[in-house]
Amino acid sequence: MIIATKLHIPRPRTALITRPRLIHRLKEGLNRALTLVTAPAGYGKTTLLSEWAEVLESPVAWVSLDMGDNDRLRFWAHTIAALKQAYPAFDEQAVLRHAAEDASGYSLIAALVNGLHRLSQTIVLVWDDFHQIEEPTLLKGIIYLLERLPSHVHLYIASRISPSLSLSRIRVGDGLNQLEASDLRFDPEETSEFFTKCSGVELSSVETAAVQERTEGWVAAMRLAVLSLNDNFDPAAIIRKMTGTERDISDYFFEEVLSRQPEALQQFLLQTSILQRMSGELCKAVTRMTESAAWLHWLEQESLFIVSLDEQRNWYRYHHLFQHFLTGQLKIKEPQLWETLHIAAGRWLEENGYPHEAVEHYLTAASYEDALVILEAMAPELMMNEWTMLCKWLSDIPDSLLFAKPMMLLTKLASQYLAGHTEAATDGYWRAIRKLEEDAGSLHADESETLQAGLAFLAAFRTFLDRDFEYAVQFSKEFVERHPQGDLFIGFGNDSDGYHPVWDIYVSEDSLRLADQVLTPLLSIWSKTQNVYFVAHLSIDFGKLQYERNRLDEARTYMQRAYDIGRSNDNPSLAATASLWLARIAAVQGNWEIASSILQELTEHTAPKVKPHLSRKIIWFRAMQGRMQGKEKPVRQWLRMSDLRSGDEIPLSMIGEYDLLATLLAEQGKTEEAVALTERLILIASQAGRQSDKIRLLIHKSRLLSLQGKHVQSMDALEEALALAWPEGYIRTFVDEGVPIGQLLSRFIHLRQNQHHRPGRKVPLPHVKRLLRLISPIEGGRSVSNEGYMPSITSKEQSVLRLMQTGMSNKEIANELNVSLSTVKTHINNIYGKLQVNSRLQALERARTLKLF
Fold first, then answer.
1. Contacts of 422 (CB under 8 A, 6+ apart)
2. CB within 10 Å: which end of the chain, N or C, has fewer?
């Protein structure tokens, strides 16, 4: 949920004084990646940044942070919303789609970096009150962003303390611009100007020096001193009061300010101090004062430490120092009101559509039952995208209350795990186990059974998410025995698009042998339950395993099962994923019409704006299919839509798409660029443990190195791929590459048989020969690929081929096409690379075989 007021730049009605020296310092940040403004409360950080934003020619994306932004998805959602609001050309959907696809968050940040690169203008992003951010995983993500920030993007952070960010690389690279409390303090000239403008009193040089000495240029102290002035102003008396710590000074002057207000206004200030943001209606509900809206407007006009949060001036907040003082006074003077006021605020917020803020007030008032009512309703949605927030809230509620609501206790444990608090989740799990053993009688029999089943369920899915699949089988069996329906889907459900990142965890991506061992029992266990979504996911995974082993009919059976579940349960994500596999199976079996029909139906039922995640998958698959068939249109459509670049940050969830980009770059003759991209992809796949991706990428690397004439390195890469693949039984990953990989395998076999290649890894030649036989069956006297491989030859290259066939020389071809000789040579080299040949004769023979002219 995006809170619009958090994206508003808080601007005072009038500037107190201009501070050109600081504005200049902020302007220097436009030559740096990060400007860090750190100082305690009351030093004017927010005011300074907001005044600078007002005079800046470029728009500014602003986010006012609070404790709730420690939730990773909420933090990035507000940052992305702020960027979109300030820079309409920013493609936020291209970034947000990664929020669900990669639970680690790094794919989203990588996509954010790419999105920022696509903008040509100067970008300024401000994170205010950054001291609120403490979540370690979020801070790591911010460092990841900072180290990859485009040069035209400038981040400004305002914080009371130095943030827990490792900035060594940025410092070394001269990318840090820093302002501290010593910079923000008023100098003597500013002090004198401030008193003159705000009070009409001109301090003498001696008085100015005394104020400077007592306050050390602290802006808040001077502002408070001015507000405490009366008609009998005595500078010496005021200066004497500026003694002690900053807290002593602020408390004294706040008391001076508060005591001068009418009694009704004093009560209003004290009672509304519990609110993090306030409107007239909310204040009225809390204080029961009908004139609440009028008080807010009066306070703003008088500049009494209140900040407007929107352009319409409907929402406000107190200055943090002032609010802290007021809440302290409230607890001293009327402690009995504390809980009552928070509950009243919670009631109004709950009834007016602000459940998140309502929960905060109920929890502050220890009104846990009220908070639980809201959380029970919100939990399914929060478990999709705000795990950290839900984890924090449920952790504030005593376990004794949650124990009486088993589903909420289970939800708490699930949220802790998903939020990365693994130890807390484990401790809570064992506390629940002991509680059941010691105090099972306190629960009804059905509640006790639900809790025991749920704990087994969480153990099953935790081990599944941790890729400890053998234990996932064990705990799944225990869960289903206790709860045959199998429907306790705590936090692992689907969004409106039928998607959840849990569906993208495939056993077969880690190990085909392990998949063989665990998918059959998992399918057997879960197929007896009502949890059809998980059954569909397992069916897709088992179908992938069968496909890789070249058991295409079995693969089609399992994919069809998943498709039927997706369609009958209105789950478009599952249905689409299964459909794409069905189309792929049809294509490699030569049933192109069936494959095209499946894709056409999918496209018609998948609107890009409504289902961007699915639409992107379909266009990508169409491009791969088009490349196999030698059709340029779907490939060009995908390249235009994806807007991928080889120098991009690569989201883990887009390895396949960037792999296709590398292949197309090679076919365009940009072999070195393709190799560099493929090397990066291999590193990412290795670090993520994505063995299937790594094998495929090594095959592509082998082909690229061969195109460069680096045959020894090409064979080394191919051997590494084979060494990883043969123990697991990979087949289709090789076979689907068609004729080009067949040529490389033939070369590998020839070198091994003639002792020209000493194997560095154990790869049995019979296995390699089997792959080669599957790739190149003889059909009608010509060698073909099972996947109908066809290199992507451009129209210009086809023209060159036809003229080569007539026996023309390179110079004659250049004259005929009215191009330079070097252009013809480039076309011919590209043709050689795409056809995997080294001479004109070989190129013409290969082109005839593939019917390229």
1. 416
2. C
What is the spatial distance between Cα 266 and Cα 698, in angstroms, rounded to a whole number? Answer: 72
DSSP character at residue 483: -
- Contact between 296 and 280 under an 8 Å Cβ cutoff? The reply is yes
pTM of model > 0.85 = no
Percentages (nearest 5) of helix, strand, coil residues in the chain: 65, 5, 30
**Does pLDDT of 359 surpass 90?**
yes
Give the separation between CA 437 and CA 431, rounded to whole angstroms: 10
Tell me which H or E stretch contains 710: none
Cα 177 to the center of its chain, rounded Å? 27
Those residues with Cβ within 8 angstroms of residue 825's Cβ, 6 or more apart along the chain or in another chain: 810
Please report the beta strands in 34-130, taking only residues with DSSP state E, as ranges in sequence order: 34-38, 60-64, 123-128
Q: What is the DSSP letter of 6?
A: G
278: left (phi over 0), alpha (psi -120 to 50) or beta: beta
Q: Residue 374's beta-bridge partner residues?
A: none
Dihedral of alpha carbons 465, 469, 474, 476, sign: positive
Among 552, 527, 689, which residue's Cα sits nearest to residue 544? 552
HSE of 86, CA atoms in CB hemisphere, 13 A: 26
CA atoms of 95 and 136, how far apart (whole Å): 22
Mean pLDDT, residues 104-114 taken together: 87
Beta bridge partners of 318: 306
How far is residue 767's CA from residue 731's CA, in Å, rounded to a whole number?
A: 10
Report the C-alpha gap between 388 and 645 in whole angstroms.
Answer: 33
Residues near 745 by beta carbon (within 8 Å), at least 6 away in sequence: 718, 734, 768, 771, 772, 775
pLDDT at 104 over 70: no
Residue with the bigger pLDDT between 750 and 11: it is 750
Q: What is the pLDDT of residues 544-557, one digit of tens each?
A: 999 999 999 999 99
Pairing of strands 782-783, 778-779: antiparallel
Which residues are CB-neighbours of 39 under 8 A, at least 6 positions away?
Answer: 45, 160, 179, 180, 181, 184
Return the amino acid letter for 800: V
Burial class (CB in 10 A: 0-12, 13-18, 19+), 734: buried
**How large is the greatest C-alpha to C-alpha distance in the chain, in angstroms?**
110
Task: Render pLDDT for 188-214 as a digit per residue (tens, 0 to 9).
Answer: 888 888 888 777 777 788 878 877 777
Least confident residue range of 87-96, 515-524, 781-790, 819-828: 781-790
Summary mean pLDDT of the chain: 85
pLDDT digits (tens, 9 = 90+) for 716-738: 999 999 999 999 999 999 998 88
pLDDT tops 70 at residue 815: yes
Indicate the DSSP class of residue 706.
Answer: H
User: CB atoms < 10 A from the CB of 553, how many?
Assistant: 9
In degrees and rounded to multiples of 5, residue 36 shows phi and psi of -110, 120
